[in-house]
Amino acid sequence: MTFELSREHEEFRRSVREFAEAQIAPHAAQWDREHHFPVDVVHQMGKLGLFGLTAPEEYGGAGDDGDFTSLCVAIEELGRVDQSMGITLQAGVGLGINPLLAYGTTEQKERWLPALVAGEALAGFGLTEPGAGSDAGATQTKAELVGDEWVVNGAKQFITNSGSEITSLVTVTARTGSRDDGRPAISAIMVPSGTPGFTAEKAYDKLGWHASDTHPLSFEDVHVPADHLLGDEGRGYAQFLATLDDGRIAISALSVGCIQACLDMAVAYAGERQTFGGPIGRKQGVAFQIADLEVMLQASRLLTYKAAALKDAGAPHQEVKRAASVAKLYSTESAVTATRIATQVFGGYGFMEEYPVARFYRDAKVLEIGEGTSEVQRMLIARSLGLPVE
């Protein structure tokens, strides 16, 4: 049994690759050095339709011509030249647009989606807090309904697309009461940018993803209308967990792009670099490592697109959830290994920032952390097998 993308998906891949190589690749190193978030490129991505791949036509999306697999193809191709732009698309759609599509009211969708789908605006997804990362249920941010407004107080951290000049809103999880069993009732509330008391703090100085927009957020008596509740009150945590399942597949696609870049760079360099009277690629010590990259690439790609195909086919949630965790775990850890191998192939040059392999090396590590750490994925996979893992 084989799994191959459709002809339409491959044609779409070629168009995104052409865009990425022409509009992103020549500038990626400079953006990385300057920690520059290229808003103009985000707008171009919107015009190309990349932010609308999962959205209906009435909001400017691709409708029947798009699907989750197409989104993964786009993220992979962007990530192949620049992981920062890949994560910008991944978060913009998977964490910004898709929760609105899944849980928003018609009024909420009509208000926010057209600009998000067009790439004219971005939305963030505020789940992680200083004391609530993998243990997201320990959320301390609170929202109290006072009259016809929610009053939000708290803090979030590591939030992508949350403080750019085109960020229009951030959806945040907050405690809004208590459940019958005593656990906190957590809801999702949309907070528009510019709301008094809502501050996107100074951008992080990160190890990698320098051209991605990432901020800590603070909320001090932030008043938003009651109709900014996203989905059902008390269901925000469950909604966000479902959102993360899809996001893990998309992060896997970003990892595939990283592995592909490492393979491309290693093959090219091993064919050009001369030592001891010939190219280093003829040495088994180098050639075998590059062969391992090909194995990791094929396995990661198959796992990723199998999970995407299951989602597009409407497979049972638990089946998609397990496939997403398997793909995310394998592909992200493979991406980190791939950057280490590629850097080793380049030798001392791999340690120099003038070579893209150094940027990919820095960018890769967070893939094992974001959208649920490798440890969380192993826990979820074990539970899906019936093991009583705590």
UniProtKB/TrEMBL annotation:
| Residue stretches making up the Acyl-CoA oxidase/dehydrogenase middle domain | 125-222
Q: Which Gene3D superfamilies match?
A: Acyl-CoA dehydrogenase/oxidase, N-terminal domain, Butyryl-CoA Dehydrogenase, subunit A, domain 2, Butyryl-CoA Dehydrogenase, subunit A, domain 3
EC main group? oxidoreductase
Superkingdom, natural source: Bacteria
Q: Where is the Acyl-CoA dehydrogenase/oxidase C-terminal domain?
A: 234-385
Domain Acyl-CoA dehydrogenase/oxidase N-terminal span(s) in chain numbering: 7-120
| Pfam annotation, one family | Acyl-CoA_dh_M
Q: Which cofactors does it use?
A: FAD
Q: Which UniProt keywords apply?
A: FAD, Flavoprotein, Oxidoreductase
Name the Enzyme Commission number(s) assigned to this protein: 1.-.-.-
Give the protein's recorded name.
Answer: Acyl-CoA dehydrogenase family protein
* Originating species: Nocardioides plantarum
Q: What is the lineage of its organism?
A: Bacteria, Bacillati, Actinomycetota, Actinomycetes, Propionibacteriales
